[in-house]
Sequence to fold (230 residues):
Amino acid sequence: MAVFGLVHGAWHGAWCWESLAAQLKERGHRSVAVDLPSEDPEAGPREYAQAVTNSLHGIGEPVILVGHSLGGLTIAGVSALRPVAHTVYLCALVPVAGKSWGDTFLREPAMDAGFGRDHFDPVEPGGTLVNAAGAASFLYNECPPDVAQAAVKRLRPQMYGITQQPQLDFPTTPSTYISARHDRLVLPAWSRASVEAQLPHASWVEIDGDHSPMLGRPNELADLLAAIPV
Fold:
């Protein structure tokens, strides 16, 4: 049995992992999902990593961390605070130890397929909340309609200390990057370039679907995760 720490991305919460967690349980694995301090404008990499570490308190088994989208900036930091067997970047941003993502992310090729101001609403102080049109086009463009509609109702604001503050000095851990072929928010070409530049030791895996495989393709994703050696 493996233990999976499931770390959500921007605008989401622990709820987004419910279907995947059920599939992992069917395969004999345990999972722990946590709500990150996304709405706290002061919270940065340390606070996010500490929230995940706290959720895993008392777990002695090897932990595989799965970070979706913005959650990729948190899973590496957790490895600076506790032992981590493997980090999985799911359609995710890739951090650089000791530096902020805002200073280190690749600007070429383009990260997204035109995600802009029409697709989110500003939230004070300095945050955003993706709107229904943005979610339909960039988060859930291949999810079943009922799944997408239910997800939109549960989205919440995201503040950006996590991208603006320096990352923890995290160690290198065995890693896998899972890219979705029809992801429009974190394009596969950008993901591939980021992995080659900043995560060269990682295994590369492609999956069908959009930016949110844990919602649209939980069975296929669970199979991939369950195959990771610990």
